[in-house]
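Demo today. Your pick:
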Amino acid sequence: MNAPLSTPAMAALRRSLDEALRTQSVAQVLTRHALQAHYQPIVRLKDGMVMGHESLIRGPADSPLRAPDALFRAARAEGLTLRLEQACLNEGLRSWTSHGQDRRLFVNLSADSVVKLVESLTLTGVIQALDAFGVAPSALVIEITEHEHVADLPRLIEVASALRARGLRFALDDFGDGRSSLRLWAELLPEIVKIDKYFIRGVNSEAVKIQTLKGLARFAETFGTTLVAEGIETEAELRTVRDLGIELGQGYFLGLPDPLPATAVLAPAGEVIASAEIAVLPEMTRAAGAGITVERLVNIVAPIRPELSVDEVAKAFADSAELRGVALVENGRPVGLLNRQSFVDRYAKPYAKELYGRKPCIIFANTTPLLLDKHTGLDALTAVLTSSDQRYLADGFIVTEGGRYLGLGFGDQLVRVVTEARIEAARHANPLTFLPGNIPITEHIERLLESGGAFVACYGDLNDFKPYNDHYGYWRGDEMIRLVARTLVSHCDPRRDFVGHVGGDDFVVLFQSDDWLDRCERIVATFNEGARLLFDAEALARGGIEAEDRHGVMRFFKCTTLSVGAVPVRPGQFSRPEQVASAAAAAKHKAKLSSLGLAIEGA
């Protein structure tokens, strides 16, 4: 009989075994069947139901190959990727059935593995293998990974169609991670697309990601696809994704990967899902008139040669009452501009016809006209509109393409387009405070009404602001408006409360915070104190200023203060946003009559 090992020898053996475990290869892991399946729940976000799990494989514990990334990186180095994928699939299926699960199981396979699996086993063999594991084909969802390595898309589509006919379903994993293909989505037509966690991380505070998810939702609707938001890790992310209408979610906040499949969502996530409270979605800062260029203003007007006589131009203007101007062009390039009114005024002067009638018309032309390329954007047009040289408003300007004449533009058109673009932009975000404008306000009220939860709609308005603005000037008036915005934002919870700027000194706050009344009282008090700092010492000493009223009569006005009208909205009380807005406006009028500057409808 061998002598027992000494304690030092046992320790050395243990260290040797530990070292061997740490340095083992993927081939050894596969030989020892050392893989372990963990399952992470996939949750229906409208009610918190666990509708499936993703099989996530782990390597041996306390090994560098424990994490799946390290495991597959080593497999690629050893040329064992396909064998590892097959082993992961087997382990995921084996462990799944040992827990008696009847939900959907999501398994990860590369396109190459899917094709080779069918080619090696045949379709019948695949179904028989699933039957041996006790997994119904209709319960299995194959997640296609490694999108950039789909070498033979037609073959993948062929195999996928055959498997679908047997009941299996397909998903695209990590869509949007920079490797995925919209073409793959359009041609494979997966039943499910999993949105990469990059777009979910911090989505509650990033407007660009909000718009991306909305765009993916439109694609999904077009293709008949169900979306899964991956990587949900916070309450705010879950609330935002749920409110965007994404059907399914997955992530640590919903449920952790575990060898034992979870049957329910984690409690904090369940509370968010059950709550009627909605997320406050960040708004994109819209560029006014994005996409508008000078090309939109082009009037196709035939040019003339600069040597054409003044008399001939006069006849052209007389024959066409609609001709507002004409460009002088030489070898395709503009050299001058004749404005109708300027030309006619000069031609009508005594002896002008006799002196200049037969001379080249260029002597009457503006030889340094404003030239704008057709691709010039609205920001540049606005700069033109506000420049010190305003001759183009009367004369018009020449539109070019690559330096060559294209047509004419006129000042009144430019003013109209710039104004319309600014108005449209202001409906989305107020240019003074950058707070959401009328359209986002209406959209948020609609979402609040649809949620079925209670909220409080507040309308804020300044008292005696016009006299202040007239007395101190618009610059100080703008500072007063910005003070309102800063005060409202600083006293609201950005996760729960929405602050919007209707225009002028009118603001809307949509509260979901339970302590909304305390917040309103602090808003009024804080603003009224801050507003006093915007008056000069003499006005403060008198308690106000002398200014004209709306009828032009000089009278005394107190220092500007803020009034807030509040309407607690009960579920089912209103059905349309305009009803809420009207009720809040009525409460505001009551607040302006109140000495407290705050009125609550129904109180």
About this structure: The first helix runs from residue 7 to 22. The chain has three domains: 31-273, 294-419, 429-600. Residues 123 and 163 are 7 Å apart (CA to CA). The longest strand covers residues 36-44.
